[in-house]
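--- STAGE predict ---
source: upstream dedup step, 1 unique chain passed
mode: sequence only
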Amino acid sequence: MKGVVFTEFLEMVESRFSTDMVDDIIEDAGIKSGGAYTAVGSYPFAEMVALVTALSQRSGLEAQALIYTFGHYLFGRFALLYPYSIQGCSSAFTVLGNIEKHIHQEVQKLYPDAQLPQIEVLSSDARCMALLYSSPRCLAPLASGLIQGALDHFGEQGRVVAEPLSEDGSKVRFVVELV
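--- STAGE serialize ---
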């Protein structure tokens, strides 16, 4: 998993909880890196799992809710750090429709070894979009948070429904409906 995801996660923990919480979860997680991440580095996915688990235990919040919150936070950060990735997009649907053919291609240029989820547009009209999320990392709550973050970024009201298509969560159908 790319270091930028780790650095942004720890920044979210610091901003939503505290610097002490960051130190505590790094210690609790017992991770090999010691929490020393660089944005361009690559780190084991197991370290992210350990950090989220430690945060869940310390905060009393469910891991899935924390992952969703991180996804929401991450969209705002990516929009700030990589504004060119949403440049020319006038709506959440435009961004979501561009994930595979534009955004992920740009990410691959920056981080050639990045292992990205697949986000396929199944159907789309002016009010509703269906997406297929596929990833062996099973981070559908992160994707859901990113989708909600996109809606919020563009000032759109919408409902995001996740329909698991596999037992392990590696395939999820999202239906995003503007209200």
